């Protein structure tokens, strides 16, 4: 049994125009002690996925179908009280903006102690204070600063305090949603290294959610690429960033600096992810994909098992034989789909 099994999960938001299908049929598993990266551009459903796992969806959000099994139990069946018990103790979350997650009227110490005492009744004040000191040292904060209020901390320190809080109860699963996005590059690097070290010590599993693929390359064993509420591709980190089969992964990978090829030009995928109230039929990436054909616009792709990867592209099997040089060429990604179509009629595929 895996620690976390997400099966065919659908999470929608009620909107004026109808339900927005933010997470639509997502499945994956996470083993104990494993780190899974979830990548994709903004608006692809990553945060919604995390919130549904920890049980903090906003009022408009609801699980429309599927299961989230944690240690074998379906979280979507649990009552609010049962879920609150799991929070912090079994599953904790480091959100993008620590300022919003920390309460401004309590000191950091008070907040961590409160979390410990709520979940481990009977823990004495001395013991919980010791845990705070230990966690502060682990994330590289001076324990003497634990009696400060959140506003007395810099952004980087708040993020570390948040991580300390998320780790205090040694949860089995940590959801890190853009844990370092608001920080400068040096701070990012330090925090990522620390999270990796800490994780080795407490043996938690982690979902690392980010739009920045270099963060995932540094911290994760496996990667799930999400596009417009669906899985585009999933597999080991080396394969995903080495030889991906989904054009979206290929494009996304080229949008970030490559440590092995620092001089390589960065590109951006023209256009934006689609609206999720009335998502396109067929492959959701088709309208931005330089290789899309009519089939892509009509028929939803199934999973193709490719070299350890699970790739939801109709043409996954043709990438290595025909399409990879084309997909790897920056020129391919340099125009919008509309401009490309006007110029050539149709490009790539068959
Ligand atoms: N409270 C909400 N009400 C309605 N739609 C929402 C709400 N929160 C997010 N969405 C929509 O759900 C989709 C996924 O958003 P999100 O999970 O935040 O993506 P990501 O974290 O990948 O940027 C987006 O289309 C977004 O507009
Ligand atoms: Mg997000």
UniProtKB/TrEMBL annotation:
Q: Name one GO cellular component term.
A: plasma membrane
Organism for this UniProt entry: Halogeometricum pallidum JCM 14848
Where is the chain membrane-spanning?
Answer: none
Q: Where in the cell is it found?
A: Cell membrane
- Where's the ABC transporter domain? 4-253
> Pfam families of this UniProt entry?
ABC_tran, oligo_HPY
Main location per UniProt?
Answer: membrane
**This protein is called what?**
Oligopeptide/dipeptide ABC transporter ATP-binding protein
Asked if the keyword Glycoprotein belongs to this entry, the reply reads no
Membrane topology listed for this record: Peripheral membrane protein
């Amino acid at each position: 049994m895996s620690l976390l099994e997400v099966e065919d999960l659908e999470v929608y938001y009620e909107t004026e125009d109808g339900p927005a299908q933010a997470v639509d049929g997502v499945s994956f598993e996470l083993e104990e002690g494993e780190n899974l990266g979830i990548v994709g551009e903004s608006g692809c459903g990553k945060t919604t996925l995390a919130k549904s796992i920890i049980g903090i969806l906003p009022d408009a959000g609801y699980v429309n179908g599927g299961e989230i099994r944690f240690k074998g139990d379906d979280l979507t069946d649990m009552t609010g009280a049962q879920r609150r018990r799991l929070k912090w103790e079994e599953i904790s979350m480091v959100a993008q903006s620590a300022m919003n997650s920390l309460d401004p009227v309590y000191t950091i110490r008070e907040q961590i102690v409160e979390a410990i005492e709520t979940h481990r009744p009977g823990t004495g004040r001395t013991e919980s204070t010791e845990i705070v000191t230990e966690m502060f040292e682990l994330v590289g904060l001076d324990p003497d600063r634990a009696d400060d209020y959140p506003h007395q901390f810099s952004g980087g320190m708040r993020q570390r305090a948040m991580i300390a809080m998320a780790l205090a109860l040694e949860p089995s699963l940590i959801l890190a949603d853009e844990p370092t996005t608001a920080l400068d590059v040096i701070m990012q690097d330090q925090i990522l290294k620390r999270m990796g070290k800490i994780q080795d010590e407490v043996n938690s599993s982690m979902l690392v959610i980010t739009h920045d693929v270099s963060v995932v390359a540094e911290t994760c064993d496996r990667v799930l690429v999400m596009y417009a509420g669906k899985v585009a591709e999933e597999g080991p980190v080396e394969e995903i960033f080495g030889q991906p089969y989904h054009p979206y992964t290929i494009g996304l990978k080229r949008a970030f600096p490559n440590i092995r090829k620092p001089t390589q030009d960065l590109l951006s995928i023209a256009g934006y992810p689609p609206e999720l109230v009335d998502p396109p039929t067929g492959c959701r990436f088709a309208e931005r994909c330089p290789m899309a054909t009519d089939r892509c616009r009509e028929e939803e792709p199934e999973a193709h098992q490719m070299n350890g990867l699970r790739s939801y592209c109709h043409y996954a099997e043709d990438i290595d034989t025909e399409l990879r040089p084309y997909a790897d060429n920056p020129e391919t990604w340099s125009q919008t789909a509309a401009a490309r179509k006007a110029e050539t009629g149709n490009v790539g595929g068959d």
